[in-house]
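Memo to structure team: turn this sequence into structure tokens by end of day. - J.P.
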Amino acid sequence: MGLAVERFLEYLRVRRHAAENTRTAYALDLTAFASWCGDHGVDSWGAVDRGHIRAWLAWMQKEGYAGASIARKLAAVRAFFRFLELGREIERNPLFLIKPPKGTRHLPSVLTVEEVELLLAQPDRSTPTGIRDLAALEVLYATGLRVSELLNMRLENVDWEGASILVEGKGSKERFVLLGEQAMIALEMYIHEGRPLLRGNAGDCDYVFLSRLGRRLSVRMFHVALGRYLKSAGLQKRVTPHTLRHTFASHLLEGGADLRVVQELLGHSNLQTTQIYTHVSDGHLRDAYAKAHPGA
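Reply from structure team:
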């Protein structure tokens, strides 16, 4: 069973250009499903039937898996069996008519404008790492980039005249994101004052955001820096780099941006993925309605 999974992961890499994180998540989910199948007497993919899938879903619910986690695992298994079906390695697809169990969809956590300003006030502008971190945070909030997109950004991707960045997102899809005035100021300051000091004698590295050793800044390093700034700002919320992406989208919608514009900037292929932010902004809409409508 493991060989088929390996072929599927290679197919994702070569044919679908799936990101490494995506392939890793699929590998973990499929390995766990294969283990469950083995524990229940299923020794080949062709022997998996709809009853097994339903029993597996029921088992995960009983074990307390979150609805989003179950849906993700089911999506991985569904994609895998579709791969086997297209390759005619199975006679019937056991996922036919199988739907994920309904569960509570948790709304993303966002920061207020005041909390964003407090966070951005923390980096020390007198040090190269502080200048770097301020620029990174400003760009994240201004563009809604994923942290991997931010840290994979290269100098050639920045259009200084157009105040925009060419980003390679999921599935190697490219899109342009826009930089606001504050983000442009912070980024230019970093490029001219902070980055040369970080690069030092480490060689010609063309990634925008560098570590103290002049190499590409890692996701882990950025998480550590963000945690330090959250602590110094006294923010008690659980905040990750992705929180700034959620905040970017919510603040745009609260400011009156069209949902499809936000979808384009975030790089969402499906509008339904973006629509969750309309629920996040619901409180703002209610306040605006209460203030503007005579009968409110």
